[in-house]
Fold this sequence. Notes:
By secondary structure, the protein is mainly alpha-helical. 48% of the residues lie in helices and 0% in strands. The chain contains three helices and no strands. The protein has helices at 13-19, 31-42, 56-70. The model has no long low-confidence stretch (mean pLDDT 85).
Amino acid sequence: DGPLARETTFDIGPLISALGAEESRDAGTFVCNATYFHSLERFPNALFIHVPPMFPHRATELGTKIGSLII
């Protein structure tokens, strides 16, 4: 009942370029994947950004940069 997969309608190209990130078609398993899948059902332009562990000052910098690019 329903699709096996969903994709965001958000144009992620500029975001990936600005962050020097890599695109992935895998939101992980279980909680991450389920959260993203169900988010896309209600919000087709939703994004799932998996941020690796990092020092707190770097996380704040990255969060600010992502926020300015998305909003």
